[in-house]
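Notes from hallway chat w/ T.B., transcribed later so I don't forget. T.B. wanted the structure written out for a chain they're using in a teaching module, and asked if we could keep both sequence and structure tokens in one place. Agreed to drop them here.
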Amino acid sequence: MPSTLTWIDHDPEARDRALRILSLFQQKESRDELGLGAIRDSFGDALFPGTSTIQTRLRYMLFVPWVYIELENKRVPPSAFAVKARQMEIALIGPLLKNYDHSGVYGIRAGKYLKRLPSSVYWNGLGVWGIRLISCSQDEYHRHIDVIYRRRDASHGRYEKDDFPEAEIQVWHPRMPDPPSNFPDHLNFELSFEEASFLLDRLLKSQKESLLAYLALNCKPVDCEFPWQHPDKKNFSPLHKELLNYGEFFSTIMHGAPFLYNLMLAEEVSLEELKEEHRNELEEWRTRLLDCCYINLPLEGLWELVAGRGHTITKRSKDFISAWHGRILATNGNVVDDSESRTLVRMREQQLKGTHSRFTNQRAKDQWTGYAGVGQMGYRWGNVMTLLSDLHTGLNRRTHAES
């Protein structure tokens, strides 16, 4: 059972969620211009718990604990803990770049100036998968590591060698694989069989009802654009199918809204080429929309699926989505010149951004790149495919070694 360190501080889940949201704004395609992020992330958490759009490779789920375990073993004090952790994480960059596979290396461009460290990216996932056992924010852990030291000292000698320590002094899962003997001087993203088995076990124990766990256990890696296109979907559980059907429904119907938003902005600044591009995008979207089997699903089912997932879905968000869905049905997806659809998009953006609305704020309009938030929601699927591929490769290492 996870231990708890209690201090008067910010709510750790809220803080981690805020950091994940802020990081999304660094990615042009993922910006949440129309306030759809809570529902998007609810689907992502339901389908692929512990993942995020900024996770890159699965072995970081081990790199981060290995760094921290080494610092704990050296009893680095709170005053130096965060600094030493950063130094060790930055030190991972060089060895990783010596390999042929550079894909997913944090700091490949920024180097020692890297702002978002792997530990902050994976902190939430490590907790969700039951690898990190303490329930606190990363900053709390750094600042109060001396509490862990004192509790360990107090329990010294009270247990047999093979007993697990008390829950309150466990930061990391007791069966964490040991790091390689040359860690971190020689490093790559290749999971050993033992490492992959540990990660699979943690996923199955902590999130056994998720689609992520099912895919990890039962399916080979695939390459498809969206999770609802998975070739084994027919074998998924009824709940997983329902989540994917509604995920496709929501992703498809809402994809037109950012295109219309960008078209309206292009009209505001008289960019003819961009206006034509977004009109064409809306026509292509309409074709996909009419081909979607789930366009007539009841919205009540959507609200039921995303409720209670840890993300606040406001009444205003529901009202906007319901009204947009209604216009889609009323216009058969032909929203390009529909005045009510345009009013919906304009009012929604102004409701969210207030005085910073691009429709009324010249500076905000000048900072517009022309493609704000136009990426279709895939609920982290692109990242998840890479994580699953890393896991599958590691699990197959024993088979290859024995053949």
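Follow-up for T.B.: The chain has two domains: 12-30+50-206, 238-366. Might be a good example for the class.
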